[in-house]
Every structure is written in C-alpha cells, then in structure tokens.
Design goal:
The structure is a homotrimer.
Chain A: H1 2-29, E1 30-32, H2 38-48, H3 56-78, H4 86-112, E2 114-115, E3 118-121, H5 123-143, H6 149-173, H7 182-200, H8 216-238, H9 245-272, H10 280-293, H11 304-324, H12 330-339
Parallel strand pairs in A: 1-3
Antiparallel strand pairs in A: 2-3
Helix pairs in contact in A: 1-4, 3-4, 3-5, 3-8, 4-5, 4-6, 5-6, 5-7, 5-12, 6-7, 8-9, 8-10, 9-10, 9-11, 10-11
C-alpha cells in the first residue's frame, strides 16, 4: 500500500521537481542570443548597416521547424507500429523530448554558448537541443515497453548530459567534423539505448501475442513517422551547416543518399523474404539509414554520385543487419519490446 | 416533405451564395499588396535598390505555411478523438476555415489594409486571416456535434465579423499589444464558442455510449493534431512580429513556455488520476495552453526563464481547470459533444 | 517453379540494376550547381559582394520541403482510403518517387541544366524533380491495385522520360508559360495513367467487396494526404516562380483558388447526393482541382477575384465530372482498383 502510494506520486513529483530545477537554472544562466536581443542587434545594425534579413533567424528557422517535426512527429509515430503501444510511443516521446530540450539548452549552452556569465540562446541552440533529444529518441526505441515514464526521464537526464560531454570531446577537443551528427547523435543514441536495454533485460518473460493481432492501421501510423523523418532529413543534416553553399550542399547530398537507400532496402527486403514479400519495418528502418550514414560528410564535396553510393551501401547493410544480427539493434529493440517487456502495453494511460 | 426538401438544399445553396458574394466583394475591393505587384515593386526596387530577398514574402512565408498547417491539420485532427466524429471534425473544420479565411481577408482588410480604394492583400494578410479562423476553430471545439454545417457557416460569418471589430477596438483604438493573439484569438474564440453552446444547450438528452467503444486509433489521430499545433506554435506567435530580433525572440519564448507546460500537465494529469494514470486529453489540452498563455507577451523581453514560468503555471492551471470546473470549457465542450448532441455522429457523410 | 523463382527475384534485381545505373550516370554527368559549390560561389561573392542570403537555397528551400511533403505524404496518403490498400498506396508511392526523383534529375538536367559537360544540380532541380514525380503519382492513382511494383518502376522510367521530353517541347520549343505545371504535370499525368489503365484493363473480373467493409479510419488517413496537398499547394505553384513579387503573387492566387474550390465542391457534393449527404471522396478530389486549375496562370496578374472565379468553376466541374463521367478519371481509377484489380490487396507485404 505504501509502495503503491509512493509509485502513484512518483511521476508527478519527478516532473514537477525537474521543471522547478529548470526554471531556477534558466533564471540564473540563460539569456537571449545577440540576434534575439534588441540591445545588441540595434548596435550591430547601426555599425554594419545590415538588413534584418541577415538575422540568424531567417537562415535557420525553416530548418529548425523541420527538425522539430522530425523529433516530435517523426520519432513519436515511428514506433506506433507496436500494437497497443501507440499512446506510450507518442506520449512518452513527447514527455521526454519536452524535458530533454530544456536540459540540453542548458548543458550545450555551458559548453558552447557561454559568454559574459550567461548562456546566450538563439535559434541555432534550439536546433542543437533538438539534435541532442534526437539521440534520446533513438535510445527510446530500444527500451520502449520496458521502462516507466520516470525511468525515461532519468534516462533522458543522464543521456543528455553524456551526449553533451561526448559532443564537447568530439567536436571541440578532437576537432572532429560531424555535420549531420552521425556519430554524436545516432551512434551514441543507439549504443546508449542498447546499454540501457541490456541492464534492464530479464530472460524468460513470456512471449506476448500482441503483435499477431491486427496491426494494419498501426503500421500506417508508423509510416507517418517514417515519412516525416525521411522527407525532412535534408533539413536535419543541413540545419547548422555554414551559411550559403555548405548548407545547400548538405541538403543535396542527403537528398541523394536517402533516395538511393529506398531502392536498395526494398530490393534487400524482398530478396531476404522467402516468398519475395516486402516488410514495412525494413522500409522504415533502412530508408532512414541513408540519412544517418551521410550525416558526418553531408556538407563535404561528396558529389551527388558519392551520396548515391553511400545510400546504396546503407540500404543493403542496414537491411541485412536487421534480418541477420541477433543482437538487439535499435530496430530489434522495438520488437523486443513485445517479448521481454516489464510493462503491459499502454497501461499508464487511462481516462479520468 | 417540403421541409425535408428544403433542408436537403440548404447546404449547397448556402455555400454557393456565400462564395458568389465573396467573388463579387473580392472583385470590387481586393487587389495585390505592394510586395506582390510588379508595378509597385519595380518602382520600390529602383528607388532603394533593395534585393528581392527584402520582399515580405521571404520574411513571412515559412511561418505562414506553419500556421496554415495548424489551422487545417492541427485543429482539424485535434477533435478526431470523439469516436465516429472524425469526418465531421476534419471535414467541417476544412469547410468553415476555407470560408472563414476569405471572409476574414475582406473584413480585416477593410480595417487594416485599405489603401487608395482597395484592400491590398499580401502574405501578412493571409497569416492574419488564418489567425482569425483559428478563433473560429476554437469555438468549433465547443459546439462540435451540436450544429449542422450550415449553422457552422453562419457562426463563422458572425464570428469573423465580431473578431475583426474586436481586434480593431483592442489593437487600434485601445492600442493593446497582443502578438500571439491570446486575447483576440483564443479568449475571444473560447467565449464565443461557449456562448453558442449555451444557446444551443438542451438538457435531458440521453448519454451517448459512443465514447466507451474503442477510441484507440481516434486518440492517435488526435495526437497528430496536437503535435502539429504544439510544434508550430512558435511560428504562430512570431508570424507577424516585427522583422529581426522581435520575431526571433517570440519564437524562443513560445518554445520555452510550451516545453515547460508539457511537464507540468503530465504531472497534474497523473496526480489527479486516482491510480496515477495519464489522460491523453489532458496532454492534448494543457500542453497547448502554454502557447496561448505566452502569446500576448511573446515578443517582449520575457527572458527564457520567464517563459518557462508562464508554461509551468499554465500546465497546472489548465489541467486543474479541465478536471474540476464543471462549466463547459472549450475542452469540455468537446466531450459534451457526446452527451448533449443534437446530431448523430457523422451522419452527414455518405457515399454516392 | 522456375517461373515462380524468377518472379521472386524480379523486384530485387530490378531495384538494384536501376540504382546501379543511376550511380554510374550520376558519376559521369552530375555535379553541384554554382550556388552549392564553394569554388564558384566564393568567386561570385568576391565579384559582386553579395550576401550568403542571396544563395538560391534561401529563396527556394522552404518551398522545396513543402513540395516534398506533398509528393511523399500528400500523394502517398491520398490513396489510403482504399481499404486494405494502405501499405501499397504509401509504400509503392515511396518506392516509385524515390526512383523517379533520381531519374528526373538526370533527364531534366540534360534538357535544362547542362553546362560545360555536366548537369549542375541545385535546389531548383530538386523541386523540378519532385514536380516530375508528382505527375507519376497522379498516374499511379489510376493504376493502383492493378500493377506490381516492378511494373510501377517501369512505368516511372517511361513516364519521367516522356514527361521531360514533353516539358522540353512545351516550355522551350513552344515557349508556353506553365508556372504551376497544370499542363506538364497534372494533365500529362492523368492521361498517362488513363492510357496505362486502358492497356491493363481486363473486363469480367469479380467485384471486390473490400470497399464495403469499415473504411472509417482509412478515410481519415486519406484526409491527411488531402490536407497536406491542399495546404502546401501555394508552395507548389510558387516554388520555381521568379524571385520577389512573382513568387508572392503565385502563392496568393493559389490560396484564393483553393479556398473557393472547397465551398463549391461541398455544395455540389451535397446537391448531387440523393439525401444531401457529403462524400469525403468528392472533397478530396475536387478541392485539389482548384490548385491544379490555377497552376498555369498562378504567377500572372490574375487578381484575387480572378483566382476565386477559377476555384469556383473548378469545384463545380470536377465534382460533376467525378459523379457523371463513366470513363475512368484519375479519381475513379482509384475506385476501379477494387473492381478490376489483377492483384489482391496488399499481398506484397509480409513479415519476415
């Protein structure tokens, strides 16, 4: 009874405490970036007589909104294909991302945007916070169905912290180039998720039959997530590139890689099925691999054919990996949610 | 029989008459804005030697498209969670919004963009028309299931008119600042909807059992609406702000408020449920409150922590309000659609 | 057995061969456009001292992403209303579009962007490739349910080729103006699709009962496609217009035409139903007609009332056409998918 009562209050108390802490930390540390602050911007414009159009906002905001859609709709709906997990997939993704972006603004700010005693927040910081949360969403895919919302919030707290430290080491100390965040975001997210899954793994749990029931509409919902991720990936890889030709090139390269990846993953999905059928889950996973793979090099002079080759190989490797590797990859973690779940599907969601 | 025949022709005749009237009024009154008219713009460019990039189109169009998605997909799908009301929710929202934006272009034009005998229409007018219709969509939430499409069109006709007068009084006569339209759009919309509901209210109607049937996928559709509203709210609050730092700041403030609001409404939703469960409807309503609340002050120097505090309080107040207030708020109006409906669900939709 | 084995490998082999061919052709022919290439852009900036903001990327990229959403989510989900065809609709649309954009980049490049031995690819080429694939998606609507994925890929191969030749003849040789591609994209796509349907037509196939089963959620999915097409059509018609006022005007004209079209198609849908009910399929088809019809003239000085008249007439004509014409229009081709299908619904999709 006591334990039950504790459990019942655990989520509200955690959420409120985290949010109060964030308010206090924002109050102490966070101010507007130069381009969002009238005192600074007026001075800058008077000096250089630049146009309002040169405000960072107009270079970055459309890309920011695309990335925002990828995080909340893309990753949220990507995992709705698990029957009876739709609420948790969309809802918990929403919760962890809303917490994660605030925490990431602080941590990334301390490392990268700290100036004269304050973190200066502008549209580029919002994009980077979304990127960081993207890494948590990848890890979420591996643990969906195994963790409670409180555990997810704690996982987000740690992962965002580690992400920022890792990013600082890679980008600032080792001076690695990683435009699309293949290393810092996706690889880090996948391994973090796998580690958490491994810690939580309990053998011998019964095999759920949930998946066998009609998942027809669930897979269509998942396609909403997949398509928004696929379509907006050029924005993801180009969102924080240098102005002008670099941003332009990053978008073209990602576009090419993604297109090539679709064809080879359809080919492999059909070839690996004993009757030549296609599997929606391969399409969902493998097609995105093309965006991840080209990420690091997206703004380099890859040439369009170079990007096609990256996408070509990626579609093959990721579909092969999905089918043959028995270790729990991020994709398989999703399915593992059925067989090793500690939580019954969507039981957290009720009506008042 | 005669009455039935009349009823059958009421919708087509209303739609056609309204559209014919709009065509005539547009013919008499509406012309292109300076930035969309080659005669004016060539002269302007010759005088100031400005770049095409200084065209208002490039400052506003990406925000306009985000707001457009909020009105048609956001509000349209927000209310699909009512089982067997999906068509009406999406379809009638589509109808009233398509009528409303045309009527709003005229009315707002007479008040704000009338110059040398004509209303001058540019991308900012399109955004303001969408804002005005947003107010009708809020009211629509309170009357869904109680009104016929013809009644909705008439409601839109009156509400857009009153909205424009109210907006003119607040913004031009009283010189109130209301960047995100919290007062003019959301408060006005909610009270207008409540008034219409109160007029239409009939006690003693039987309690429908519709809601009890599986609403699983319906709630996922509703989350599509919720998320597009949530994600694009920074565009909503910054769409017509001043160029440069004001627009930048409005987006940052809204982003912060929305993020904080998610955590506190999850906390309250769980705390107020006797078993600590979450209610999707709280998440849907309360999370959006953060965007509304910060609207008026969005472009002011609120500071990021100020926005977090606004969102924090909003998530708590709106979830408390939703659970404890027995008056029909916009959110509860949605649910009231089940119990006091004069119309059977989606009966308006057939196949040929 | 041998035949079966061949059939089983046909899709993977076709996909891989096409993609290998594309990689080789891209390697030989495709390079970056001036605005995406640091060697060229640095020189240009040094000469004219222009800002990064003048890069074509910032003029076009937001429109490109909107068009991209129309092709993959818009057309993909538009056809999910066919019960049990959702996977094929979304999945095959994804496959053919991913192939089509690559092939279109090459063909349109040879005709329009060939410079000093190479095709120069920039964001405008990406938009044009999406346009070309839009035409294939229209034709796909007429053959859905009648063709295998391999046949779709071959259809795409031929249609993109013919499209590019037709476009070259119309735009370059006859010097026709067709801003929104009404002729080159939509009319061409519809007739191509009808021709393919006519070739594939087999009389006497049994009438499927699929459609009679509950299509409730399927139609809501289809509305996602419809709405994204409707909302982003102003971007479609203005995406490759001249900078400044022309692009601004094309967006305003399309917006007006689309809004008027909704009211008249609702009117006609209700008037033509014997009990005055509305048909979701009319709304889906007719509302889009407004965007197509205004396409050619979108950037001209149509005036807002001129656009309303175009939309007005269009909503009437297209709904009448849908109801009374017995030839298989693109819309009716969709329904014909049920009655004359050579393939059982979604049988191509399995789990591993």
């Amino acid at each position: 009874m006591v334990w039950n009562t504790n459990l019942r209050w655990r989520l509200p108390v955690t959420c409120l405490l985290l949010q109060v802490a964030l308010v206090v930390l924002f109050g102490v540390f966070v101010r507007y970036d130069m381009d969002a602050d009238p005192h600074w911007i007026d001075k800058k414009e008077a000096e250089n007589s630049t146009s309002d159009m040169e405000n960072e906002f107009y270079y970055r905001y459309p890309s920011f909104q695309d990335v925002h859609v990828m995080i909340f709709v893309g990753f949220g709906f990507l995992m709705t294909f698990l029957q009876r997990y739709g609420y948790s997939s969309v809802g918990f993704n929403f919760l962890l991302a809303a917490f994660g972006i605030q925490w990431a603004l602080l941590l990334q700010g301390w490392f990268h945007s700290y100036y004269r005693g304050y973190i200066r927040v502008g549209v580029e910081n919002l994009i980077n916070a979304d990127f960081c949360v993207g890494s948590v969403c990848v890890a979420f895919g591996a643990v969906l169905g195994k963790v409670s919302p409180v555990q997810l919030l704690i996982m987000t707290l740690f992962q965002v912290t580690l992400f920022s430290v890792n990013e600082f080491i890679l980008l600032n100390l080792l001076e690695v180039k990683d435009a699309g965040g293949s290393m810092t975001i996706h690889t880090f997210g996948a391994y973090f998720g796998l580690t958490v899954t491994w810690i939580l793994y309990r053998p011998g749990l019964h095999q759920s039959k949930e998946r066998q029931s009609s998942v027809y509409h669930s897979d269509l919902f998942a396609m909403i997530g997949t398509l928004f991720l696929w379509m907006y990936w050029p924005s993801f890889n180009s969102a924080v590139s240098n102005h002008g030709d670099a941003q332009h090139r990053a978008a073209i390269n990602t576009y090419c890689s993604l297109a090539a990846c679709v064809l080879t993953s359809v080919a492999l999905s059909s070839a690996l099925h004993k009757k030549g059928k296609l599997d929606m889950v391969h399409i969902q996973n493998a097609t995105l691999a093309g965006g991840v793979a080209v990420g690091t090099a997206a703004e380099m002079m890859l040439m369009p054919y170079g990007s096609l080759i990256v996408g070509f190989i990626c579609g093959i490797v990721s579909t092969l990996g999905f089918v043959y590797l028995t270790v729990r990859g991020p994709g398989q973690g999703l399915r593992a949610g059925e067989s090793g779940g500690l939580y019954v599907p969507d039981r957290r969601w009720g009506a008042p």
